Amino acid sequence: MGTMPYLHFRGDCAAALRFYADLMGGTDLQMMPYSASPDAPADWQASDRIMHGQVTLGDGVLMASDFPPGQAGDAQAAVSIMQTFDTEAQGRAVFDGLAAEGDVITPFGPTFFSPGFGMLRDRFGTHWIVTGGRAPQRQ
């Protein structure tokens, strides 16, 4: 059993998942539009919105969908996705990529618990916590 984040978008799920896959070296990118459903209502048949998508990022899987055609909702207002990287440089590169056209909440930099830590909301509305590197062990 495992827990996987599932994000909801307002029509830009495909663009978001492609962006995350490209930026973070994601693999196994999969997307199924609402129009692929054999039971889809007529207004869904012409839609390119994503009914289910997923991408593997490191050891985890990020899943997502668009709200159904004709429906709206509050996307990722109160949830953050945490992504960790082995080095500070990797974390900074991903943070900077996610921050482009987004809003930085906490600039990426050293903390007492990590050589690199930052928080932001990306251009798709997803909140991220990014860390890079490991803090030295205290004796």
From TrEMBL:
<dbReference type="Pfam" id="PF06983">
    <property type="entry name" value="3-dmu-9_3-mt"/>
</dbReference>
<dbReference type="InterPro" id="IPR029068">
    <property type="entry name" value="Glyas_Bleomycin-R_OHBP_Dase"/>
</dbReference>
<dbReference type="InterPro" id="IPR028973">
    <property type="entry name" value="PhnB-like"/>
</dbReference>
<protein>
    <submittedName>
        <fullName>PhnB protein</fullName>
    </submittedName>
</protein>
<feature type="domain" description="PhnB-like">
    <location>
        <begin position="4"/>
        <end position="130"/>
    </location>
</feature>
